[in-house]
Amino acid sequence: MKHLFRGALLAAAVAAAPFSAAYAEINELKIIAPAAPGGGWDQTARSIQHVLQTDKLVQNVQVLNVPGAGGTIGLAQFVNGSKGDPNVMIVGGYVMVGAIITNKSPVNLSMVTPIARLTGEYEAIAVPANSPLKSLADLVAALKADPQKVSWAGGSAGGTDHITAGLFTKAIGVDPRKVNYIAFSGGGESLASILGGKVTVGISSLSEFDAQAKAGKLRILGVSSAARLPDAPDVPTFKESGVDVEIQNWRMIAAAPGITAEQKQALSATIDKMVKSKAWTDMLAQKGWANTYLSGEAFDAQLAKDIAATQTILKDIGLAQ
């Protein structure tokens, strides 16, 4: 499975094609974060809001949370209610790709206007500080003994967290269909269940565990990167523990269906300015997000590849037909 991620999910950031300097000014923008507050999409939407307003690229930016079903409830609201509206955008990503397939969603990403892939982030597995699991080796042993007794808290069914849990389990020779996965629509809810000891382990993007780990409330057992990360040098990779899984989550922003070519160019140019700003670069460093910016036709093509690869992965671990 590794080659699927390298090509589809770990592509290097590509510079966007230059946009025309003359485009309509955007004064107001509403960004839908299709998840509860506290998670990656919410953080992404509010980071975009902060940078656009700080750099005066858009005068007024609002964020609206519409949680549920791996982002597909928010996506349906966006597709059905924002057609032709150039002042509404939605944040999404790899989680949404999987959720659309898993939930057999009547709406999908072919119904929106993709603008850009923005960031990438690696997955991490964490346990409460008082957990008897001290390492990934301990987790592997527990899974091999009885996978049903190991409960996982993560994001929506079929999303990056769920896929990573399935791939992790499969890589150690355990049937991924036996993963005891508990899905939450927002990072805040998932984190509360982990801290409260209601689940065995939590799985999420590394940044969502960072504050609690630094406070000594969580212990991060491993990360899904190829090598140890500069901002988490003490956290071993899955591969170091003999689990051959490498995966990166990514996040995107899209515009409404039915907008004009000129409106798409205006939004694309605004996002292009944002990602090249110091404020955005600083935000990425603060959050521990990698810059995987890709826009235009190059992003359209990569998105199609990612959807096809995800369909294959979900079938392989029993989450899709």
Automatic annotation (TrEMBL):
Key word Signal present? yes
Keyword Signal assigned: yes
Q: Which family does it belong to?
A: Belongs to the UPF0065 (bug) family.
Q: Which organism is it from?
A: Ancylobacter polymorphus
The record's listing under SUPFAM superfamilies reads: Periplasmic binding protein-like II (SSF53850)
Question: Which Gene3D superfamilies is this protein grouped with?
Answer: Bordetella uptake gene, domain 1, Periplasmic binding protein-like II
Question: Which UniProt keywords are listed?
Answer: Signal
The signal sequence is: 1-24
Entry protein name: Tripartite tricarboxylate transporter substrate binding protein
What Pfam families does the record tag this protein with? TctC
